[in-house]
Amino acid sequence: MASSTANSMLADRLRASVPAARETLRAIDEAHRTKVVSQVTVDQLFGGLRGVKGLMCDTSAVDPDRGLVIRGRPIGDLVDALPEEILWLLLTGEMPSKEQLQDLQAQLTARSEVPSYVWDVLAAMPKDSHPMVMLNAAILLMERESVFRKRYDEGMKKGDYWEPALEDALTLIARLPAVAAAVYRLRFGKGPRIASDPTLDWGANYARMLGLPDPKGDFTRLTRLYLVLHSDHEGGNVSAFTAHTVASALSDVYYALTAGLNGLAGPLHGLANQECLKFVLSLQEHFKGVPSDENLRQFCWDTLKSGKVIPGYGHAVLRVTDPRFTAFLNFGAKVCPEDPVYRFVDRLFAIVPKVLVEQGKAKDPWPNVDAGSGALLYHFGMKEFDYYTVLFSVSRALGICSQNVHDRAYGAPIVRPKSVTTQELQKILAAM
What we know:
Blueprint lengths: L8 H24 L9 H5 L13 E4 L3 E4 L2 E2 L8 H10 L5 H14 L4 H9 L6 H11 L5 H8 L7 H26 L14 H9 L7 H12 L8 H10 L5 H12 L7 H16 L5 H13 L17 H13 L4 H20 L10 H10 L8 H22 L12 H9 L2
Helix pairs in contact: 3-18, 4-8, 5-6, 5-8, 6-8, 6-12, 7-8, 8-9, 8-18, 9-10, 10-15, 10-18, 11-12, 11-18, 12-18, 13-16, 13-17, 14-16, 15-17
């Protein structure tokens, strides 16, 4: 049975902060509700609403010149934090004290036991099931335990929605490492499940349950870093926005998270790191080793001239090197500077931006986070590309679940934008 947040430090902190935050949002809406925040061009209408400001999200923002900023803190300043600290930060806007961190870790440990029926269903799934399907199936199975749905069915005040939402969020987050690690071991024939160790932090426990060799603890440190760097990315990316939309109908977080992660599984969202790694490995195969800078530069030009792109370079928002890429690059420089795959990542960083600037087409010639993360996972023996998105999902659950708690705390309405037909659009344009 999951622990209750009723007397937890996290719930106490939110009880103290939620009323003021509600009042701030209410006052802004009341005083400025007719003011225009964003306008939509025809190009944006046909281009996936890119750049249109139509959402509220306090957990993080992506600044073109600074990269990801979590609650006012640049991600580069958080690389040594534990994922649990990031969860507290996402939810409260503050880094936890030592006592608060220990209380949150105790909450997660108390909730971490995965129901036996989840293992039964995962074992019964087809052996070639995609790891993301297995993860999402496990999450949906556990929806039967949603505290939010039960409390809603019993009847509760709208102002209380956030408390059972927090219950569900913490239970789900607590169980994800064990579920995700079991998916890895079961799907790829790595042997039986490895039991959780309640003495370890959330990220270290996940790394341990994956079962990869880690004599120096470097893979554990990489796992923590990965979970921190991918934890949130404002509210408009496919996974976060999808989860927000589903949850806006008051579907509980089990439904919302799986919906978001189904979007994360798409090639244009969560698969980018494995595409980047495939490119690097193809370079290694082509050159039979690390080439000279000039040969690598020519290969990049040949790739562009053939109409292809160089994976991992460019970003929809950023106009600088993604600080998350820098964090991964610095990590690799410390733990595996001579690894041939890492060396390719390092040399591409020195060459590709210059080539893209010379080409003159890229708005952002700098690497994004995906340009380096896969190479480090590969170095530590995780060579099953289809699993990378599961690892991404465990991390992104921190942000999605935090946004869900905020939405319920601040009374976010159902998402219902207006669509227009082609004929309607033509009439609008003709009248201009």
